[in-house]
Amino acid sequence: MPPAADDQVDATPTTGPLDRIDAAVLDQLAQDARASFARIGAQVNLSASAVKRRVDRLRARGVIDGFTVRLDPAALGWATEAHVEVFCTGSTSPATMREAFSRYPEVVAASTVTGEADAVVSVRAHDVRHLDAVVERINAEPFVRRTRSTVVLTPLVRRTQLPGSGR
Fold first, then answer.
1. H or E stretch covering 8
2. What's the CA dihedral at 20, 23, 29, 35 to 10 degrees?
3. 13, 128, 159, 163: which sits with the fewest CB atoms below 10 Å from its CB?
4. What's the gap between Cα 117 and its chain centre?
């Protein structure tokens, strides 16, 4: 009798693009990183041990960087969100910006960007007064010429799954 599909040798590639089963495993982990290998296996038609081997390979390849928990910032008192465009003086290096923005616990993401602004900083604050204080501190950085802030009213799409996963 031939072995069941989930008991066959796992042929996950060690480099290159992901196959559809790897993508399905990642999609399941993105939905719930605490899901057991058995539960994931039931969803993607593999045994728990085959899922574990795939996850181990994906971790070794650097595709999976770690496992985390998604928090609701508003439930923790961080109800105000804004995107702050930062316009720098001269040619400020990304390293200088990274060093400065990393000091702010309210900064949840920061990126250099194309266009008029030099960087976009995503900020979480307790309220508008707190946001104002954070933006003022960012404006006081020696390399900042000016900022332009946009307060988020309603988050519309927040994805944790791979693009195109269908969820």
1. none
2. 10
3. 163
4. 22
Structure tokens at 97: 């910006």
Cα first-last separation, the chain: 37
Residue count of the chain, please give it. Answer: 167
Residue 117: CB atoms within 10 A of its CB come to 18
- β-pairing verdict for 107-112 and 80-88: unpaired
Half-sphere exposure (CA, 13 Å, Cβ side) for 120? 9
pLDDT in tens, 42-85: 999 999 999 999 999 999 999 999 988 888 898 999 999 999 99
8 A C-beta contact, residue 25 and residue 44: yes
Q: Which residues contact 126 (CB under 8 A, 6 or more apart)?
A: 77, 78, 79, 80
Are 6 and 49 in contact, with CB atoms under 8 Å apart? no
Crossing angle (nearest 10°) for helices 48-61 and 37-44: 100
Q: What is the pTM of this model?
A: 0.74
Q: Identify how many contiguous H helices and E strands the chain contains and give both numbers.
A: 5, 4
